[in-house]
From TrEMBL:
GO molecular function terms noted in the UniProt entry: peptide transmembrane transporter activity
Cited Gene3D superfamilies: Dipeptide-binding Protein, Domain 3, Periplasmic binding protein-like II
Coiled-coil stretches: none
Family membership: Belongs to the bacterial solute-binding protein 5 family.
Cross-referenced SUPFAM superfamilies: Periplasmic binding protein-like II (SSF53850)
GO biological process: peptide transport
Keywords: Signal, Transport
Domain of life: Bacteria
Record-given protein name: Peptide ABC transporter substrate-binding protein
Signal peptide: 1-22
Domain Solute-binding protein family stretches: 72-445
GO CC term (a single one): ATP-binding cassette (ABC) transporter complex
Pfam family for this entry, one: SBP_bac_5
C-alpha cells in the first residue's frame, strides 16, 4: 500500500462536489452497504478494496499513512525506524502499553510472529511475496529453516528487520495490511476461522457477523490512539443490491454506498442539486483490465493476445460506465510514479486483429470463456467485450459470478482464460510502480492463489525489477522510475492484459455522515472508518 525512502509524491486529483465537512463529534453509529459479503478479516489473507478498510478497523501496523495522504507515519511503532547506512537493516521500537483486544500487551515477538506467519506457505497469504526480501525468508518458505533469520527481537519492544538487499519500497510494504500485527494465541485458538473471529489492536471490535447479512463493529474502549474512533458502532450491511442500497440511503437507512453510486441512478444523482453535498469524486490510482491467461489454449500465442487488445473498443466501455474513467494506454495509471505519458498502447483495429489471428493459425477464430463479477455494470461490460471479440471471430462465453468465485477461478492456473477485472481493478497498495509489478505480473505472483492471473513469468524482467528496487541512493529516483517504465513497456508488448480504463470513483454518503475525501476517498485505505462521525 505504500512506498517510502525514494517515494515520489503522488499528486491525486481530489474533487469534492459537496460542501466542506463539519467537525467530527464522538458517539453515534453508521451503516455502509455492499452487495457481496466480506470474504475474510484475517489481514494475512484478505486482499481487496472491500476487505482492507474493514481490516483497518480491527488491526494496526507498525506504520500507516497520514489520513488523505501518501505520507508514512508511525502507528504501533513509537517513531519512524532507524535505517542502516547500507539500507538493509531497519530497527523499530514499539509503543509501550498498546494492548490487543483480548487485553494482552503487544510486544516485539508479536511483530516477528505476524511477519513469519505471512511468509509461512501454510498460511497461503497473497502477501507472501512482498516480504521475501527479508533475510532468511526464502529458506524458511522452502522448509530449510524453522525461523526467519532476518527477524530479531531486541528486548520487549525492539524489532530489527534485515534485508538481503536494499528495497526502496520496504517501508511502504511494512505499512500494508499483511503486516498488521496479530496475537499468536488468538490465531491458534481460532485456527482457520481467525478471519471470522479476528482479534487485533484496532479502533473497533467485531461483535457480530451473521453470514450474508451484516458485520457489526463496536468501539474498542481501550484503543491506544488518542480520541479515536469517533463512532460507537459501524454496521456493514451485505447482500444489498447497489440500487436497493441507494434507495435505502435516500430513506436514511444507509449512510455510505460501499459499491459506489449504481449506474442506473448515476446520471440522476450527479445532476440533481439536492445530492450535491452527498457526492464525492476522485480519480483513482488504478487500472481496470482484461487479464489473458498465457497458459491456456490460443492465449499462449502473443499474437492472439495482441489481437484481443486490438479487438476491444475501450470507448464503448466508457460509455457504459457514464464516462467514469480515463482510457488506459498501458498498465500504470497516470497518477502512479513511472507512468509514461508518451505510451500509446494498442489501437482499436478489428481488421488488424483478424489479420493477427489468421497469422497465428486462428482464421476461423476460437472458443473461450470470459469471467466477470455479477455486480452491475460488469455483466453489461462483459457483453460489450463479448461483442467486440465476436466481431473478429473469437467466441467468448460469459461466466458472471460472485467476486470471491471469480477470484478463485482467476487465481487457479488453467481455469479462467480471460477475466474482466471490473470491481477488482488493480488499485495501488502503495504509490510506487513496484506495486503494479511484483503482486500481479512477476514470477513470484504467477502461482496458484496469486494475483498474476496472466500466469506470466519473465525471470529477466524480475531481475531488472529487483535491481531497480535496490536503487536507494540519493539521486537515483528518476533513473529507477525510468527503468520501471521500460519494464512495463516490455510487458505491454507481451499483451498480458487489455488495459481498459482508470476509474474515476464516485462515492455517496448520507446527510448525517461527516467525512470528506480525506476519510472517504483516502488514496491508500479508501475508507478510514476510525475518523468518520455522524451528526446526531
Amino acid at each position: 500500500m505504500k512506498r517510502k525512502t525514494l517515494m515520489v509524491a503522488v499528486s491525486l486529483l481530489l474533487v469534492s462536489l459537496g460542501a466542506a465537512s463539519a467537525a467530527p463529534t464522538r458517539g453515534g453509529s453508521m451503516v455502509v452497504s455492499y452487495k457481496d459479503d466480506v470474504t475474510t478479516l484475517d489481514p494475512a489473507i484478505g486482499y481487496d478494496l472491500q476487505n482492507w478498510p474493514i481490516e483497518k478497523m480491527l488491526f494496526d501496523g507498525l506504520l500507516d499513512y497520514a489520513v488523505g495522504t501518501t505520507r508514512l507515519e508511525p502507528r504501533l511503532a513509537a517513531s519512524m525506524p532507524k535505517v542502516s547506512a547500507d539500507g538493509k537493516t531497519y530497527t523499530f521500537t514499539l509503543r509501550p502499553g498498546v494492548k490487543f483486544q483480548n487485553g494482552r500487551e503487544v510486544v516485539a515477538s508479536d511483530v516477528i510472529y505476524t511477519l513469519t506467519r505471512v511468509l509461512d506457505p501454510k498460511t497461503k497469504s497473497p502477501g507472501q511475496s512482498f516480504y521475501t526480501s527479508i533475510s532468511g525468508a526464502q529458506a524458511f518458505i522452502d522448509g530449510k529453516a524453522k525461523t526467519v533469520t532476518g527477524l530479531k527481537a531486541a528486548g520487549k519492544y525492539g524489532v530489527t528487520i534485515s534485508l538481503d538487499a536494499p528495497n526502496a519500497a520496504f517501508l511502504n510494504i511494512m505499512a500494508m495490511n499483511f503486516a498488521y500485527v496479530v496475537p499468536k494465541e488468538e490465531v491458534a485458538k481460532a485456527g482457520a476461522d481467525f478471519g471470522h473471529k479476528p482479534v487485533g489492536t484496532g479502533p473497533f471490535r467485531l461483535t457480530s457477523w451473521p453470514s450474508g447479512q451484516q458485520l457489526v463493529f463496536e468501539r474498542n474502549p481501550n484503543y491506544f490512539y488518542a480520541n479515536l474512533p469517533y463512532l460507537d458502532k459501524v454496521t456493514v450491511k451485505v447482500g444489498l443490491d447497489p440500487s436497493v442500497a441507494f434507495l435505502s440511503l435516500t430513506r436514511g437507512e444507509v449512510d455510505l454506498l460501499g459499491d459506489g453510486i449504481p449506474p442506473a441512478q448515476f446520471l440522476q444523482v450527479v445532476h440533481d442539486p439536492r445530492y450535491k453535498a452527498n457526492v464525492l469524486m476522485r480519480t483513482n490510482v488504478n487500472t481496470s483490465y482484461i487479464s489473458l491467461n498465457t497458459g491456456v489454449g490460443p492465449l499462449k500465442d502473443v499474437r492472439v493476445r495482441q489481437a484481443i487488445n486490438m479487438a476491444i473498443n475501450k470507448t464503448k466501455v466508457l460509455r457504459i460506465i457514464n464516462g467514469r474513467g480515463e482510457l488506459a494506454k498501458g498498465y500504470l495509471p497516470p497518477l502512479m510514479p513511472g507512468y509514461d505519458p508518451a505510451a500509446s498502447g494498442y489501437k482499436y483495429d478489428p481488421a488488424a486483429a483478424r489479420a493477427l489471428l489468421k497469422a497465428a493459425g486462428y482464421a476461423g477464430g476460437f472458443d473461450t470463456t470470459l469471467y466477470t463479477t455479477s455486480t452491475d455494470p460488469n455483466p453489461r461490460i462483459a457483453q460489450s467485450l463479448q461483442q467486440d471479440l465476436a466481431a473478429v471471430g473469437i467466441r467468448a462465453s460469459i461466466k458472471s459470478q460472485a467476486q470471491s468465485t471469480v477470484v478463485e477461478a482467476a487465481s487457479t492456473k488453467a481455469t479462467a482464460p480471460m477475466v474482466w477485472s471490473g470491481g477488482m481493478a488493480w488499485t495501488q497498495d502503495y504509490p510506487d510502480p513496484s506495486d503494479f509489478y511484483w503482486p500481479i505480473l512477476s514470477c513470484k505472483s504467477a502461482v496458484q492463489g496469486g494475483w498474476n492471473w496472466a500466469f506470466y513469468c519473465d525471470k529477466a524482467l524480475d531481475a531488472r525489477a529487483e535491481k531497480a528496487d535496490q536503487m536507494v541512493a540519493p539521486g537515483q529516483s528518476a533513473a529507477r522510475l525510468k527503468e520501471y517504465a521500460s519494464i512495463f513497456a516490455a510487458l505491454n508488448k507481451q499483451a498480458l492484459w487489455v488495459p481498459i480504463y482508470h476509474e474515476v470513483r464516485y462515492m455517496m454518503r448520507s446527510d448525517r455522515l461527516v467525512g470528506g475525501l480525506a476519510e472517504l476517498e483516502d488514496p491508500i485505505h479508501n475508507i478510514v472508518y476510525e475518523r468518520l462521525s455522524v451528526n446526531k
